[in-house]
Design brief:
The chain is α/β, with parallel strands linked by helices. It has 3 domains: 165 residues, P-loop containing nucleotide triphosphate hydrolases (Rossmann fold); 97 residues, Helix Hairpins (Orthogonal Bundle); 164 residues, no CATH class. The protein is built from 19 helices and 11 strands. The strands form 3 sheets. The chain has a 7-stranded mixed beta sheet, with helices on both faces. A two-stranded antiparallel sheet has the order 7-9. The protein has a two-stranded antiparallel sheet with strand order 10-11. Strand 5, helix 3 and strand 6 form a beta-alpha-beta unit. The longest helix is centred in the last third of the chain and has 23 residues. It starts with 7 loop residues before the first strand and ends in an 11-residue tail after the last helix.
Length: 450
């Protein structure tokens, strides 16, 4: 199912912090619209520009680190490409970290949708002593590659020309899959090819999806791929397909004693390593500070210890600032002396204000009988209830502040890598780190007040 309009549809895809938003602004200028994807709160950015008499619709997909459909952003980005069938995917890649970005790029290419690689920030790569052979990179990926410096607008004209050329080819071929694929090892090919042929026999299915991509995702036991097969196959014809995929996966894992998904990832990594070795030359040694830090922060063992230490420090900071240190002005009232101001912790200041001083002030002004129904409702209901809730606010404020600083520093992106393997044992993935922290799994989260 492709988009129902005569415009050319182009999507920008890539990891966060690759310059996608800058490129989107360069392409669309003031012709932008911002909304939400249906049923979710993820922001949707779309716009357009004109190439002669042709209108090019551009959609900036959410930044993702993979297309594995674990997170909401990953599902939205992948589903949009699969269901809307754009003429061109512009894969925005950070040239200074090409190896790190190839994992997502290879997954994009496996969707077999026509793609243009926008190699952004080539000036930074040169500054760090990297020489990239753009021609060899295009040959290795079998995909057009356009070097750019998005912050200065360099390469924009070449990118627009590449988008137009690829889109015209796409329309000429009537949106046929590109046929791009990774050459997996023979043991994987032995189960992948028969499944791909079985999918080729389902006409209604392969009209909208690449049989090669579906076969790979079914072997990975991808839930969304299984749902696609069930939804797009008439009657119960989907059952033999899924049974064949399950049998092939179980057979491989029994013989080779490793998950099929790990073997597929290893093959993608091998392709990425070969691409980097062929296309990138370091013309001068340049040890970046972040590389040195990453070797320790992302270490399989020391990275876990560092994470535990950082979470402990965050825990101490939150409680020290919110509940222990008397640094917050505390307003009080006594019938004999009137209003006063002292120093207390934020939690104590909130609690004392609503539980002691405000009731005493109101009691002096209203002179309500202590046993009266209204006095009980006011003091023990309204003031005690509001005060009890507001005493949580300092703790939650400092928790969000410290976690926001950690995320801004880039540490959480590295924690995702460190904790991914551990969390997968519990049916989660590395990107669950921040939700766990906020929900109470780490550092108390919403359970901090308790």
């Amino acid at each position: 199912m492709s988009h129902v309009h005569s415009d050319l549809l182009v999507v920008l895809a890539g990891q966060p912090n690759t310059g996608k938003s800058t490129l989107f602004s360069l392409l669309t200028g003031l012709h932008q619209r911002i909304g939400n994807y249906p049923g979710v709160t993820v922001e949707k950015k779309s716009g357009h520009y004109h190439e002669g008499d042709r209108r090019i619709e551009v959609v900036d997909l959410p930044g993702t680190y993979s297309f594995s459909s674990y997170s909401q952003e990953e599902r939205i980005a992948r589903d949009f490409i699969l269901l809307e069938r754009p003429e061109v995917i512009v894969a925005v890649v950070d040239a200074s970290n090409l190896r790190r970005h190839l994992h997502l790029l290879l997954q994009l290419l496996e969707l077999q949708v026509p793609t243009v690689v926008c190699l952004n920030m080539v000036d930074m790569a040169e500054r760090w002593g990297l020489k990239i052979d753009f021609k060899k990179l295009a040959e290795s990926l079998d995909t057009p590659v356009v070097p750019m410096v998005g912050s200065k607008g360099k390469g924009l004209a070449e990118l627009r020309a590449a988008i137009l050329a690829v889109s015209e080819k796409t329309q000429t071929l009537n949106h046929e899959p590109t046929g791009w694929k990774i050459d997996y090892p023979a043991e994987l090919g032995a189960i992948l090819v028969p499944l791909e042929k079985a999918l080729d026999g389902k006409e209604h299915l392969i009209e909208d999806f690449s049989s090669r991509w579906l076969a790979v995702k079914l072997l990975e036991n991808d839930r969304e791929a299984r749902r696609i097969v069930q939804h797009h196959t008439h009657d119960d014809a989907w059952k033999p397909i899924l049974e064949q995929a399950d049998a092939a996966r179980n057979s491989y894992e029994t013989v080779h004693r490793e998950p099929v998904s790990e073997a597929i990832v290893r093959s993608r990594n091998a392709k990425a390593d070969a691409t980097v070795a062929t296309c990138i030359t370091r013309i001068k040694p340049h040890a970046r500070g972040t590389d040195v830090i990453d070797r320790f922060v992302c270490h399989p063992f020391f990275g876990l210890l560092l994470f535990a230490l950082i979470m402990l420090v965050v825990f101490q900071i939150v409680f020290t600032l919110a509940n222990d240190l008397p640094w917050f002005p505390q307003v009080g009232y006594a019938h004999e002396t009137g209003w006063s101001c002292e120093w207390a912790s934020p939690v104590d200041a909130c609690g004392n204000f609503f539980e002691e001083w405000l009731p005493e002030y109101l009691n002096a002004r209203l002179a309500l009988p202590e046993t009266g129904l209204f006095a009980s409702f006011l003091y023990k209901g309204v003031l005690a209830g509001v005060g009890g809730v507001l005493t949580f606010v300092p703790l939650i404020f400092f928790m969000f502040l410290t976690l926001a600083l950690l995320e801004r520093s880039g540490y959480f992106a590295r924690a995702v890598v460190v904790l991914d393997g551990l969390l997968r044992r519990f049916g989660l993935h590395g990107q669950s780190v921040l939700p766990l922290a906020l929900a109470g799994g780490i550092v108390g989260g919403c359970a901090v007040p308790a």
